[in-house]
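Translate sequence into structure tokens.
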Amino acid sequence: MIPLLSELSPIQSKYLAFIERLKALAFSGDTNPDYANRVVLSTDNSIYQVLPQGVIYPKNTQDLQLIATLSNEPEFHDIVLSPRGGGTGTNGQSLSDGLIVDVSKYMNRILEINVAEGWARVEAGVVKDQLNKAVKSHGLFFAPELSTSNRATIGGMINTDASGQGSVTYGKTRDHVLELTTVLLDGSLLTSGPINEATLESIQSGSDYSAHAHCIVDSIQKSKQQEIKDTFPDLNRCLTGYDLAHIRTDKGMFNINSVLCGSEGTLGFIAEAKVNLLVIPTYAALVNIRYNSFEASLRHARELLAAKPTSIETVDSKVLGLAKNDIIWDSVSMFFPDKANEDIQGINLVEYTGNNEQEVADKIKVLTDNLDILTKQGNSSALGYTIAMGHSDVNKLWAMRKKSVGLLGNAKGEKRPIPFVEDTAVPPENLADYIMEFRAVLDSYGVQYGMFGHVDAGVLHVRPALDLKDESQEPMIREITDKVVSLTQKYNGLLWGEHGKGVRSEYSPSFFGNLYPSIQQVKGAFDPRNQLNPGKIATPFELGADLLKIDQVPLRGQFDRQIPIQNRDQFKEGMYCNGNGACYNFDPNDAMCPSWKGTRDRRHSPKGRSSLMREWLRGMSSKGVDTTQASKDVKESNFLITFIPRLKNTIAKRRGTYDFSHEVHDSMMGCLACKSCVGQCPIKVDVPEFRANFLELYYSRYLRPVKDYLVGSLEFMMPIMAIAPQPYNWIISRRWINQLSSKYFGLVDSPALSKLNLKKEMSRRGIRLATPLAIEALSPKDRKRAVIVIQDAFTSYFETELVLDTMEMLTRLGFQAYLAPYLPNGKPLHVHGFMKAFQKTARKNLDMLQSLSFYGLPFVGIDPSMTLTYRSEYMKTFSDSRQVPQVQLMQEWLATKTEHLSKQPLSLDGSVYHLLTHCTEKTNAISSIKDWQSVYKTLGLELIIENVGCCGMAGTYGHESANKETSKKIYDLSWKEKVNNPELAGKLLATGYSCRSQAKRLDDASIPHPAQVLLQHLRIASSS
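Result follows.
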């Protein structure tokens, strides 16, 4: 896939020479010409895929200056440089066949916060939510809102002049930019903001790029004032990027930032920004209005605007339907009453903010009084409304709206809603009529679509569903776009209302009109050789270079169609990633993709791994490999017969023979298999699933490390080791043994086995084993109170006390508790790609469970990760889901017994505890977290859920030598602070075995399971 050095083309050689020269200039950042980094950054959130020649991660402004200065040397005048931030653009803005300059990895520091004057100075890679989190305690926020705020960088927002919900009130990004620090292509540093005429003349007298650019922009603004007024429409989402209409402020100051904001990296590298901060409104409320038609929601928006809300957002039934099947619905379902015969086709979210609750309530009353009259009319299209009061509830609904983009990508089937005409803007009064014609265009092609957007600003996001793997559907990109362009111009609007121009820049001349040559002059002044993100917005007039065309840039679908359908289906959990970037969530307290947070390496993210998997499949397919047949062959192959070929390949690997599979393997091995991606990715990308399938095939060609066999056999070995745990525990406690284990077996800090023997303790404590004979002996009354606890290897043998405590707790609560016979679950085998062994193990385990399920007793598990394996890996492995009995989490089952619990003669003391949840249950069984609170409340205790991310252990991940440092970094991001908080001492609980193990390993903290604390209180209550 990647050519040998001897096969390098002249272009590749030049880019490698540039990178080598850059490193020789004391460049302090990372330079990555490897294929994996290039593949991962070849896509964004658009339909396009362009392979760069390399990826550069500068660490500071000086690094950016080195890049720019080097590009000025004659031999590198044709080197292409494209800045990149969060990579969430929908128009291919940051895609390039040259060098990607990604500032997000290192240049993400908040440099200064001035609370008194209300501003912050940040590096370009700072994420919007990161900044808002830092200033929230001061009662301030950075106002421009957008759906990707948890991963979009400030630099990226500036480059696209981003805005979203609330723009009518708060404006766009450029309205909040006070000052920019930009590295120009000659290596000079431009610090820009509003300046007076004297300062402007002083700058223009210079001889660098900045002087020339100021002269050109000033000249155009003065000589073309009428044309500028006629060309730039008077819209909330006005024509940004090279914005000549706002070069001079109302006070007559010259501000070249109006050209830089929205320029998409075509004029320079934004290094730092000084942005203004606003006071957070004290109170917020939101009215959620439901309609029986989407058109009605659009037409009602104009009347709603008269009520002067802060913002109005609309969502159609398509998005709502997808939200109902997503983790997000659990947090917003209370705002959508389940009424019979109510067919919601659209909603309007109308927000009000103010200085106090009464002020907001008064504003809302004006609206709701009118709504009450309207909804009582028999012919009204408004079905009803609900009100979310306070920032907490309001933010839940906005979170659903923010997720709309990603949710649309999770539509079923091969046709998926995609962005290519998705952010048009028209005057709000024209929006309803415009959308009706827009829909007619799409209906004429017979395509499905979803809609959502900012009706107060006249911007609506429309995503037609196409399957670009089908070559016959490709022409619709051009045909639909051309018709939408004509329609948008008919309604005095713009093709790009929010997400920038990028590849769609080919329509720039038709919207800029006679001003386009002036736009070209601006580009030429900043970038005379067309090196900066060429083909976007404008090209230097003198060069005659072409803009990119929407149907001449490679599409992701063109690459994916090279993969046979059977190969795609086998790895479908990664094939549908649309690049929305939800896995780049910066928040350390969010569980989403801990490996990304711990490394800041895009290869170690669900999006990165999906990209690598797609490219690996394409390469395998080009060699004629049927991966489904290959997997079957692996399961039927003889281990000894394949040993010699695998040994030869492994020797070749160690000698440096290139195989792209190794780069994919490195990425996969960084995955914690925590399954947060499954729960939180709107597309439901499931890295652990396709990772396991990949590892199975990879190790059919290469030898496995010893550690994989040790981890895979753990569940089978532990019952034997537990017979005499002292020798094992003595061995692993020796430091020199740990060092040898790390060096030769790849495992460190192995946990000690419990000193208690489960079988002996069961006999001593009268704990009953679940057998058909024992269950048959139960009376009908006892059977109603009976429950079977499913064992897992980690709690049974490393935390035997927890299993015993759980059984005692259930008994004290009046239940007939039985412990299922121990059998390996198979989870470690699946994690490491032992698919044949996993299926065999799971089948045997299921046979045992099915023999017990005949009696209809509920099954519950203790450890979240092992328990959720039954509803995830087991369900995917066995095609008939009826083969897999329901195994509930402990709290899920207890929460259904609150009536029984409330009748127990208990008097607990109202103690308050704080729960740290396992990330697998937090993201894949989110409602179960509240179940623990419900159980505790019923029994007279209070439980507060602490907001934390991943602990960094994830089964055995943290015990693997290669992962130890990353594991600790992940732990330090959120868990360390909680575990070491003196105010929480003795009050912390944790549901996950791996989480408790990590806290013990890194902080020597013993954190009990919620069941154990309940037992403590039950014992006290019974003795008093």
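Note: Residues 864 and 921 are 6 Å apart (CA to CA).
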